[in-house]
Amino acid sequence: MADTQSRTEPSAQAPSGISRRRLIGTAGATGVALGAVGAGAGYAVASSNSPEQHAALTTLGADTVMFHGKHQPGITTPMQARGHLIAFDLAAGAGRKEATALLRRWSATAERLMAGEPLSSDDTDVARDAGPSSLTITFGFGHSFFSRTGLEKQRPSALDPLPDFFSDHLDKARSNGDLWVQIGANDSLVAFHALRAIQKDTGAAAKVRWQMNGLNRSPGATSHPMTARNLMGQIDGTNNPKPSESDFDKRIYVPASGSSASSPAWMANGSYAVVRRIRMLLDDWEKLSSKAQEDVIGRKKSTGAPLTGGKETTEPDLEKTDANGDLVIPINAHARISRPDQNGGAAMLRRPFSFHDGFDQDGVPDAGLLFVCWQADPLRGFVPVQRKLDRGDALSQFVRHESSGLYAVPGGAEKGGYVGQALLEG
After folding, report:
1. Which has the closest alpha carbon to 179: 152, 153, 154, 198?
2. Most CB contacts within 10 A, which of 142, 147, 260, 262?
3. pLDDT at 20
4. Which domain of life is it from (predicted)?
5. Residues annotated as part of the active site
């Protein structure tokens, strides 16, 4: 933990190029800068003639993710503490022209907010005192978008509707949508501010179809960086592909060269997002002993290590048996069934948020996982794994898939451009 700064440093001018919003501290009028893990020891304030004193942000608030780039943000960005997922349908009569204008507005708003810059004079100012806090805003197109805009010939076959699964109990009103937006940040007000700005930007061009709120552990809450836990208390995401792996781009992103029916040229450097609202039946789950829970998952609850020993990243020994000759990792354990080498090498980058939307009239929690996974082709990523889980995963009796969506997420916008430009202007 960094030392807590308890006095005002000598006056200094704010560095040029840094916005007012990013320089306003979270400590208030007292001038006290609260310490944070990895935070710098000092901060700058405005000159004595200034009506306000501007304290530098803690590391958490100052963290910035670039909007422009080869890929859209929010895919390989480290998981954030707060998230919002929202889907829109184009309004009646709206088409390609209105969609183009909307993506221009959304991209401009995302660029400013992710840089920690204020919006127009009528901005709600909800996040006035905070920096960008690792804010990311990601945009995608649903299957129905292409018929609404007359772009059916540009619709990738990889965007064909997902098959039905046995564990599905889908609410159509909370599934799919013409357009999809993912928002993540390490500050709740920053995330809400972005959500409100995106919704206001739609104007008369689109209307909200559904919206969901998610959460994760806050950065710095643990003594060292760790894989996230879900609401079942399980470490979730151990076997995620890593950008350092040689085949990561091939598995997660659409190739930049060539064009096919599966992924046309406008999807170069993009990815496909599968979004599922997965209700966890926590009352039933929590009736199990810790040992029974570990057998369902196939991993130690405390460390995430496979039941066959080692640490979280140790490869499980799927053939190992105990003194009675029984498999140490049960035949239907989630970790066994979901492993890539048990699914023809199928891989996806899981980047979920947990959710809790209160309790029903019987006191049963409406809680679980806003599952978001990324892959170059969902028919080779999500679908084969989910089909196998559907047939024999021990975890299936404790979860229920309540909504679903599949979205084509194009590559990042060039400077001066907007997301989806190659599709809408191609």
Report:
1. 198
2. 142
3. 40
4. Bacteria
5. 236
Our CA angle for 6, 12, 13, nearest 5°, is 130
Structure tokens at 239: 């076997």
Cβ–Cβ under 8 Å, residues 352 and 372: yes
55: confidence class by pLDDT, cuts 50, 70, 90: low
CB of 74 within 8 A of CB of 110?
no
Distance of CA 255 to the CA centre of its chain: 22
SS3 of 150-168: CCHHHCCHHHCCCCCCCCE
Strand partners, 83: 184, 214
Instruction: Give the whole-angstrom CA distance, residue 107 versus residue 414.
Output: 11
* Sequence-separated (6 or more) residues with CB below 8 Å from residue 388: 337, 338, 342, 343
Note whether 42 and 15 are within 8 A (CB): no
- What are 317's two structure tokens? 């020994």
pLDDT digits (tens, 9 = 90+) for 229-286: 999 999 999 989 999 999 999 999 999 876 666 779 999 999 999 999 999 999 999 9
| Rounded Cα distance, 351 and 297, in Å | 19
Angstrom distance (rounded) from CA 202 to CA 204: 6
CB atoms < 10 A from the CB of 49, how many?
6
Helix-helix angle 96-114:188-201, to 10 degrees: 160
Contact predicate 360/238, CB 8 Å: no
- The answer to whether the beta carbons of residues 409 and 254 sit under 8 Å apart is no
For residue 296, report the phi and psi dihedrals to the nearest 5 degrees.
Answer: -65, -45
Strand partners, 213: 84
Rounded Cα distance, 409 and 253, in Å: 10
Q: What is the pLDDT of residues 358-379, one digit of tens each?
A: 999 999 999 999 999 999 999 9
Helix (H) or strand (E) holding 20: helix 20-23
Q: How far apart are CA 116 and CA 225, in angstroms?
A: 25
Structure tokens given for 322: 């105990």
- What is the model's pTM? 0.86
Q: How far is Cα 109 from Cα 227, in angstroms, rounded to an integer?
A: 31
Q: Is 302 helix (H, G, I), strand (E, B) or coil?
A: coil
- Looking at residue 249, its amino acid is D
Q: Retrieve residue 247's tokens.
A: 């085949």
Triad 267, 273, 276: Cα angle to 5°:
160
Cα 425 from Cα 410, distance rounded (Å): 14
